[in-house]
Amino acid sequence: MGILIKPLVTEKISDLNEKGKYGFVVDKKANKVEIKKAVEKMYGVNVMSVNTMNYSGKQKSRYTKSQIISGRTSSFKKAIITLAEGEVIDFYSGI
Hints:
Elements: E1 4-7, H1 11-17, E2 21-26, H2 32-43, E3 47-55, E4 59-63, E5 68-72, E6 76-83
């Protein structure tokens, strides 16, 4: 399993894409230097900065006819990548 798990495609991240910032879900144990090298190797761009955020899983419950089902969502680490001026990553080119 690699460092980059999947790109984030949300409304908020799509607005940041216009400013040269991209979001990825990354491995929980990866540091900023490893994330930077992985993005540069995979997409062939120059990364200026990396910001990371750790998200903890949330408690969720659902009411059914017979019982209440409880559980947790999984925790993950998110990275926001800022690229050099004029560089872009096209996630939709292979579709």
